[in-house]
Structures are given as structure tokens and as C-alpha cells.
Amino acid sequence: MMTIIQWILLGAALFSVGLYGVLTRRNAVLVLASVEIMLAAVNINLVAFDTYLSDPAYTGQIFALFVIALAAAEVGVGIAIILMIFRNRHSVDVDELDLMRY
Amino acid sequence: MPAAVAQLSRVAVFLQEHGDSAELAQAGDGGGLAAYAWLIPVVPMVVAFLILFFGKYSPWKGWGMATAALGFVAVYGTVLAVANLRDGIVAEFSVNVGDIGTFAIEWGWVVDGLSILMFFLVGVVGLLVFVYANAYMKGDARYTWFFASFTLFAGGMLVLVSAPNFIQLIVGWELVGVSSYLLIGHYWEDMDNIDAANKAFMTNKVADAALFIGAIIMSLSAGSFQFSEIFTRMIEGQTTLGQFGFWAGLAIFIGAMGKSAQFPFHVWLPDAMAGPTPVSALMHAATMVTAGVYLIARLFPFYQLPEFSGSVSTIIVIIGAITLLSMGLLAIVQDDIKRVLAYSTVSQLGYMVAALGVGAYTAGLFHLFTHAFFKALLFLGAGSIIHAVHSNNMSDMGGLRKYMPATFWTFLVGTAALVGIFPFAGFWSKDEIISSAFFNATNNPEFAVWFMVVLSILGAFITAFYMARVVSLTFFGTYLGDAKPHESPAVMVVPMVALAVGAATAGLLNIPGLTEVVTDWVTTRAFPIVEHHFAQPEYFLIAIVTPVVLLGLFIGWRLFGPSSELHYTGTGGEAVDVSAPQRKVAVERDTFRIPVLYPVLENKYYIDDLYMNGLVRPTMGPIADATLWVDMNVVDAVPNLGAGVARYAAAAVAVIDDNAVDGFYNVTGATTGATGSFLRQLFPGRVQQYVALSFAGVVIFAALFVIF
Amino acid sequence: MQELFDSGWGLSLIVFLPLVGALVLALIPRRFEAGIKWTALVTTGVTLVLAGIMVSLFDFSATQEFQFGVDVEWIETINANFHIAVDGISLPLVVLSTLIMFLSVIYSWDHWPEPHNPKLLMVLAMVLATGMVGTFLALDLILFFVFFEVVLLPMYFMIGIWGDTGIRKVPVVNWEIEMRLYASIKFFLFTLAGSAFMLLGFLALYFASGDHGERTFDILELTALGTAGAFVGTFAFWVFAAIFAGFAVKVPMWPLHTWLPDAHTAAPTIGSVILAAVLLKLGTYGFIRIAIPILPDEARNWAWFIGVLAVIGIIYGSLACLAQTDVKRLIAYSSVGHMGFIMLGVATLTTIGINAAIIGMVAHGLITGLLFFLAGSMAHRYHTREMPRMGGQMTLMPQMGVLLGLAAMASLGLPALAGFWGEFMSLLASFNPLPGLSNSLFRTLMVIASVGTVLTAGYMLWMLRSINFGKPSGEWVSAQLKDVGTYEWIAWAPLVILIIAIGLYPKIVFGATNDAVINLVASAFGGG
Fold first, then answer.
1. Using the beta-carbon criterion (under 8 Å), do B684 and A101 form an inter-chain contact?
2. So what's the ipTM on this one?
3. Pairing of strands B103-111, B91-100
4. pTM confidence score
5. Which domain covers residue A54, as residue numbers?
6. Which of B205, B216, B638 sits opposite C454 (nearest CB)?
7. Any idea where the domains of chain C sit in the sequence?
């Protein structure tokens, strides 16, 4: 019998990995992949708590589905943006993308 | 028609009150003949528009249609005239075309002696003039257009004379005016002609304004536009006309003065000679200028009653008398043959108007009737001459008797009729006018009537004098013109001969005591005409007038005829150089012959100048300009200045706004900006740095959340 | 069709169909000009046909009754309703406006003013149509006001965008400003200032009606209150003054007329036509529909003032015409004179006078509409509006010359043409004004106004002399001017026919108006 703690720990671990990736990777594609990992962590938490609380409306699971759908859309848009950036600047290094000031 | 019968019975009561001098002809209703008389005005009006649209494609390019229309009117008019003389016709028909308040607006046609007289004249004289115009207008650039407007002219007159109410009368009145405008300005390339047309229209319009007022007063006082209603209510005492009658009568008479070119509204008529000669012939004979006389005759039941019209008839007599003499005088100094005839027409119209003024209803209309024949004849003769010599000026003519015998003889008949030689038409009609005036003067000694008697005898002298001058200068002596004179074609001569027959014999229709055709004709009305009828000619007056006329002819002949040794020469008796400016020759001749009066007559009593310099130019010039200036600079200044003030105020507000109000916002903005530029140094634009910071924030908040 | 109109939808269609047309036009791309033209034509054409059906179904035996009405709640909180209906007074004017709109579209077929933008021009024209017809049909003060104001903006843009680009030198303040800007702003501000007062007057009536039951904007209810004597005294005086200001600007009455010559001259041809033919009538109609019936006592008090201003307008407008060299400006000033005759008729407060005013409005719409069409077409050909430069048109363009002659004659009030009735009957009415008004004053006015008819003839003949007659100058002989074109004929022929038809058979208008006016005067003044 697995307890909720194990799922939370798994979620926290995945989130930490994702956050680390977001903060440290220079390649924008990998940053995006890291964001996906963080979303997966969130999804695990949602499903875990849903089951733990035996929610009759399955709110958590439905939310997870929404997140997956949105993540897919986000990846699509994100990759497209990165593609455009690459076309224009021949680089996807996020350190060089410092035009979003002011 | 029961209505007519009822009217007649009301009139019978009136008759008893006014004695037996007023006789009412026994009249029928004319049956179908009268019921279809609407065709008389309608056919020419419709044909006029047909010519306008289809004339170019029709045989004879519109002339055929126009002449057919006039032929129809002539035949119908003649039939009506015969029927009227046999049975008498008094009928009136109206078609409602709208109501305004309690007033009915109606188109209709009245068929009685008076309107039949006009139908007959317009039809017969018009037909002859139209036939004549075929040749006269040949080669004109706007042949079809001419016949369209000419037919409209005749049609307008027929609308006028068939009117049973004021509205239709005014419609016809102005239709005649506008078509005369088109015809006078027919040769519109020349601005002088347009000015003449404008002068005619404007002079008439001034008079029309008075006619409007008169018609309004009369209609409102009686509560109807219809003549017969007005007269009936007048007789029955149901109007407030007594109160305004004088003013109504005067205003309507001023309207009549305009159309009939009475002094001082005569100025337009001589200028109207700018139109083609057939137009002048018709205008002076049967249409347009007779409209004023017709109007007074139509309203005669009103004018003959001083209890309604007050002393208007006195004014009518005096105006008529002044006109007949003063315009006759002007005729004697004209060089343009058409202008002589034009002034002569005005003078003769003066006779008619004065006759109606003294109550000689039949005499006035009788003169209108005979005048139509001989004046149309004289104009056609003049046209024939102008056609031959290509000039209107008598100083370009002379000796034409040899070249144009038919024109000469018919012109002579016309002259005899105009001056009143026994037994030509004018003799009888003019005699009847003078007799009636004399009768009135002796029975009712009034200054105005005596004034008229004296002036009409003088007028007869003047008429004889200027006609002798015209005939002498035109047909006798030697030819002075450049063009080669020739007799006119048959299509022009035949109408002249026909009119000459009329001019010679029309007078025989109404010889006192012998024939009373015209008397019966024109007194066939729904309302009684109070007037004196003579049992025999007034031999006493004939004995005065005829020698006066002969004297006038003699003096004219002596001064201008071939026996005068000065005929072809200038003032000093030396031979005239024919190539010299003929106008100057004519002036010298006339100044020599008519020494004292000449300067005044030459300038037409300065009346034209008075109107032009005293009225027209100031109105069109300074007064109009001043109005416009006031409009632009005074009336419009209020909003413009308002706008100007608003703009200055706006500028002031803008300054305040920029410096004070906006200053506050600007300072606020600047502070915010400075803070921002300090803060933005914290954010170099690295995405990951932002994420890290925000994560740190989340952690801090989460920690705080857990702790508290 | 009977059901359509009985249900009230018919009238609503006549009012709003042009607005629908405007929306459709807005969706058509600018480059499909044919589509734009046809949409505009069909819209105005159907509206005209509907107006024709309305006339055929109209019960002429009861012209004083409001027919085909619809009355539904609109703005509940202030008790303003969507109340429209037609009676004998508004009927001729509705037909006139729909006809003029239709003809304007036909005329526009090959006359697009610069800058070329048929789409916007037609959209504006359609909005105008809704505003004009709505004003004539509205029986609720707020609705009336809304429609009255709806007209403003499209006309402002019409003048401002397609107007005359010449420079207008404004005296006194010494501005030099583009004609179209000056004229459009002037037009807008004048009318807006007037309607601001008018709205105040309407609001005052609304609140005052509260003393006699529920507050209302309904014209019929207010008329009933007014004729019963609900609005009297100083209050009524100021209300009348406010409403007078609004309508007098629109008419325009002297001395509030100065926007008119500028606006008419600057506007593109169809703008001038609509402005002259229909927009000016909104003011006079307002007097007849609102000012007189709701405030009869004040109308009586103000009558002398209105009459005097009207006659000043007649003489003054005519004199100003005589000093003009610009043909469009001349026609514009002539409107001041003609509207003077109409207002003189209104001022007499008699059945004859008000009938004369209505037929005068219709006739002026037809005649001045035709004159502005002609002036526009002439300016299009000559590229100038200066009369001294023209001349000999009868030789150059005989058809145009004849039409101009006819229109000028109609305008100077030639009997047997439409213009005569308004002019003559106004004079007639002022001889015997409503009992209680000064006879001597109005008779004096009649005489002065009849001098105005002479002056009118004077400037019209002067115009004909300058444009039509004489020898054409060399400038034009070589210019190969084209005579009246097909679309022009189609657009003008109905006007010409109606001018003659109404002249010969005034029952076309009087048949609708007479009973309605008799009823109006009888209920407002107790007979008369």
C-alpha cells in the first residue's frame, strides 16, 4: 500500500529537477522541456490528492487532463516561438535573449 | 343647368333694383357645344408640348400642328359665336383639383359672350398669323421651337379667357407672360432682345403682384375664387367687399395695366418689338395686351357698381385717357415702324380701358374686336415690309408702293380702319366709345369723363397724324434702303387680305340702330351689364371727329408726304446722302417737324430712365450688394465673431492647460518615470533570472504562509 | 401588404430599411463599386416602393388620423416610446424624402464627387434617409430628437469630405479657411446649438406634463394637453422660445440663416439636393407638428414675430440673390426667400396658411432639388460656378437650358407649376390671419411679401440671362460640353413631371393635407 507521502515526494523531486533545468539550461528547447517536467510534477500531485481525498467529482484528475492539454498547446506555441527566434538570430541561447527589458 | 337658372333668378332681383337700362340677354346653356369647349384651351396647350417633343419629326416641322390647333380653335370659336348669336350661351363648368381650407381650387371653362368673343378673335386672328408665320419664319434656326412657344402663347391666352375663377385666370395670365418672354427673347443670341424680354416679364410681374393682392382681397371677401360666386355674393350682400372694394378694384386694375401696357406700365411693349413680327401681330391683336381689357370686362359687374368698387372707375378713365394721348404722341417720333404700331396699340388700348371705365362695356369690347383685325393687319403688313427690306427703320424704306402693291393696299385699309375713316371698322368702334363717353359726360358731368372726351378726340387727331406719317414715309417717295424690295409670297399675302376684309367690314356688325351683333354678343353674360345703348349714330360727334381725323391725315401728309419738298432732304433742304446714318436723318427730320415736343418724346417722357435709374439699377446694384454685405459682415459676424472669441478662449485655455493643469500631470509622470528607470536596472532581461527571482518570491511567501 | 402596414412594420421598414442598407454597404469592399451602387439603388428603390404602397393604402378620407402606427416601449425609465405613424401632414413629406433619396442615388451613378469614395458616401446617404424619414414619422419627442440629430452627422461628413475645396475668406474675423471645413463646421454648430435649446424645451414639456398625469414625451398626448390649455404663461413662453430656436435654425429663418448659403454651396451635388429638398423641411415640419399644436397659445403670441422674420427673409434673401455671381450660392439664398414664404404661411396659423406651407415645402423640395441637380451638373461641365463666365447655354446644351428655364420659372412661382401654390396661398392666408392676430400687420406683410415675388422673378431671370442666353464665349464653344446624360434624365424627369403635375393638380398634396390641417387648426385654435 502506497501512501500519499510517496507520491508527494515523487512530485517534489520531479519539480525540483524541472526547476533546476529551467534555471540552469542555456538551450531554450531544454528550458521548455524542463517546464514540461515541472508540469508533470504538478499533475502527479493533482492526481494523488484527488485519489487521497476520494473526490466524487474527480476535480483533480480533470484538472490534470486540462494541464496536459494546455501543456501540449504550450509546447506547440513555445517551439514555434523558439523556431522563429532561431530563424532570426541563429541561436536559441537564452542568455542572449535579453531584449525583454524596459 | 339648374345652377345657372338659380343664378338668373337672383340676377332678376338685381335687375329690378337697377332699372331697365340693364338688360340680360336670354341665354341657353349651349348644350354639348359649351360642355366640350374645354377643348379650346386644352388643344393648343397639348399641341404646344407635342411640338416641343415631336415637332421636329412632324410634317412642316411643327408649323402644321400649330396651325391645325389654331384652326381648330378658329372653327370652334366661330361655331360658338354663331350659336351664341342665335340662342345665346351662358354656361360655366368647373373641375375640382384640390381644396385648401374651405376654398375650392378648380379648373374650368366659362362659355359666354365675352369668352366666345375672345375664343373667336384668338382663333381667327391667330390662325391667319400662324399661316403668315410659315413664310416669315422660314429659315429660322429655331423654327420648331418658335411654333411650340407661339402655340403656348395662344394656349395661355385661351386658358386666361376661359377662366371661371381667379386662380385659372392668374395661371393663364402668367402663361401668357412667360411665353411672351420666350417669344420676345426668341433671338436670344442678342442680349438686347433678352433685356427686352426681361423688361416685359418684370414689368408684368410688378403688375401681377398687384393683381395677386387684388384677387386675394376679392376672393377672401367673398369666400370663393369663382367670379360668378363673387358676383352673386356681392349682389346678395354677403361679402365684406364694400370695405375693401376700392383697393381690390384698384389692385386688379394695376394688374390689368401691366398686361395692357397702360401708362405708366407701358414701357415693356415697345421693347417687346424685339420678337419676330408675327409675335407682335398676335400679341397686339388678340392675345396678351387685350388680357387687361378682358379682365376689366370680365369683372365689369363689379366695376360698374360704385357701391363696391368705389371711385376706381374714375381712375380707370383717367389712366385710359392719359394713355391714349401720351402714347399716341410717342408714336409720332419713332423711326422703327413696329414701334410706331406698338405705341399705337397702347394708345388704342387706352381707348378701350377708358371706355370700360366710363361704363361703355360694349364700346370697349367692340373696339377690342375691330382693333384685333386692323392691328394684326398692320403688323403683318409691317412684317411683310421688314421681310422685304431687312430693316425695321422707316428711314430705310420709302416708295414701297410700287414694289409691294398688295402690302400697300392692305396696309392702307388697316390705316383707314385705325384712324377711323367711314365705313372702316375703327370708325364705328371709336365713334361708339366717344359717343358713350360724351353721353356719360352730359348725363353725369364729372371732370374725368370730360377729360376723356377731349383727350379721345385729340387722340383721334394724333392717330391720324402718325399713321399718315407712317404711310408717307414707307410707301411714298423714293426707296432709301439697301436690300432689293419685293412682294411677299402668297402665304403671307393671303392672311393680310383676309384681315383686310375683316378690318373693312368688322365695324358694320354694330351700327347703332341698325345692327347690334356685337352688343348682343358681348352682353350675353350671367350678370347684367348696365350701359347705355344708342338708337342711332351720334351724328353730332361724327361731325366733330371726322374732320379732326381728316385734318390729322392732311397735316401728316403735308409734313411727310411726297408733296413736301423736304421729304428726302435734311432739315436745311439739301439732298440727303443715302449712305449717311439713317437714324440721324430720321432724327433730324422729326426734330424739324415736331419742334417743341420732340426732346420729351424722344426720351419717352423719361419714364424708362426713371425706372432704370430709380428702381432697377439701385435694386440690382447698391441695394442688393448692401444686403449681401450686411449678410456677410453683420449677420454672419455674430456666429463668426462667436467662433473667433471661442478660438481665442480656447487658445487661452490651452496655455493654462499646458502650464498649470498639465504641469501637475507632467510632474507626476516624470516622477514615475525616474522611479521606473531606477528600478529597471534590477531587471537585465534574463528570463531565467526572472524565473529564479519569482521562485524565490514563491518560496518566501510559502515560508511565511507556513510560519504564520 | 395591408397586414404589413396595419401591423406597423411597414412604416418601420420605410424608416430602417436604409439603415440596413447602410450596414450591408459597410460590408461590401470598397472596390466593388457596382455592388455598392446597386445595393444603394435597391435599398432606396424598395423604400420608395414601400412609400408608394403606403400612399396607396393610406385612407384619404381620414387624413387627420394617424395611420399605420406602431407604439412600443423604448426607454421605459423616462416613458419614451417608439411611436411612429403617418397622417396627411407627414405623408407628402415622407414620399418626398424617399423620392429624393432614390433620385440622388440614380444621379450619383456617374457623378462621384472627389475624393472618390462611393461606399462611404452611400452609407452616409442611407443614414440620412433613415434620419429624415424618421423625423417626419416620429410621434415621440425623444424619438423625434434622435432622428433629428441623426441627420446631422452624415451631412457634416458629406460637406466636410466631398465639399468645395476652394478658400473661403471670412470677413470681420479675417480667416482664410477651406470652404468645406468652414461650411461643415458652421452647419454642425448652428444646428447643434439650436437643437440643444430644443432638447431643453422637450425636457421642460416632459416634466410639465407630470402635473397632469404620468410624465410623457408622446406628441399626441402632449398635443391633447396643450390644446386643453396645460402649458401657458411664462413657462410656455420659454418652452416655445427654446423649440423655436431649434426649428428656426433648421428652416432657416432670418437671421439664423447664414449657415445655409455656405453649406449649400460647399456641399457636393447630392448633399445640396438633400439639404435643400428635405433637411430644411425638418424645421418647418417641426413647427407644424410640435410647436403649434402643443403650444397653441404661445404660437399665437409668437405669430407676429415669426411672420415679420419670414418676410424679412423673403426680401433679404431675394436681394442677396441679386448680388450673387455664384450660381449655387444664388440658389442657396433663394431658399431663404422661399422658406420665408413657407414660414409666413405657418405664421398666419390658418388652415390656408399651413396648407400653403406644406405644399410650399413639397414644391420647394422638388424645385430647389432640381435646381441644385442642375447647378451641380453645370459646375461639373463648366468647372466653374461663376455666372459671368457662362452664357449661351441654350446653344451649348439646349436640353440643360430648357430644364434650367423650367426650374427657374417654377422657382419664381409661375402658376401651373408647383411653386405657385405655396407662394400665392401664403399671401392669401396673410390677408386674413387667425382671428386675434393683427390684421393690419399681416396685410402689410402680404404686400411686402408680394414685392418679394417680384424680386424673386428678378433674380431668376437674371440667372437665366447670364447662363442661358447670349452667345457662348469661345471658351465653351470649343469645350464640347455634353448635354444632359441618361442618368441625369432619369433622375430629373420625375421631378419635372411632379412639378408640372402638382402645378396642374394640387390635390396631389392638398388631398392629403387639407383635412389634417383643418383638424389641427380646429383643435389648436377652435376653428379658424
1. yes
2. 0.90
3. antiparallel
4. 0.83
5. 4-96
6. B205
7. 2-525
